[in-house]
């Protein structure tokens, strides 16, 4: 079965309507991962089925539960091979995405992917999360296989203004991580996600912060 057919079946199982050019971009993206993985070790297993089910469909399966709107600025931390930022950017061309990773090889791959797929809504930054300074407001911080919820919130604290949320893609229900959240943060939702071809548990966690937890911004600056 061709990769195109497998992707079409996966999208149908998720009940996602994707334009033909977007489907081709997703396939080309997987091909780029396979090409660059030999030298850059982007993912542990780059077989067609693993890339499609474990990585791509895993990221696409959460999109019905995520509000990605035109003009929003989404920060994908520890982006690695570009999950979930690249697939989301393909599906939401009017939403802006910043792909952040401290590994230079991985950001080289991300920049090459942005260029080849002509993703004008994508920026690539080679930087650690705690050192990144955004030129504009971040609406959503997202991560997948990055760090614990508490650690991610600690490192992203300087980027989170009132209304910024953290969207974390997790495996099993993160009971311990939720219990360890800072007192000024709370889980807004924890949604179980069904991914075609994946038997294990998958969850999307949304975390919000209180007004007291966001950094104070001096309006006279800038």
TrEMBL record:
Its EC number is 2.1.1.170. It is an enzyme of class 2 (transferase). GO terms for cellular component: cytosol. InterPro entries: rRNA_ssu_MeTfrase_G, SAM-dependent_MTases_sf. It catalyses: guanosine(527) in 16S rRNA + S-adenosyl-L-methionine = N(7)-methylguanosine(527) in 16S rRNA + S-adenosyl-L-homocysteine. The keyword Membrane does not apply. S-adenosyl-L-methionine binds at residues 78, 83, 129-130, 144. Keywords: Cytoplasm, Methyltransferase, rRNA processing, S-adenosyl-L-methionine, Transferase. It is found in: Cytoplasm. One of its GO terms (molecular function) is rRNA (guanine-N7-)-methyltransferase activity. Belongs to the methyltransferase superfamily. RNA methyltransferase RsmG family. Specifically methylates the N7 position of guanine in position 527 of 16S rRNA. This is Ribosomal RNA small subunit methyltransferase G.
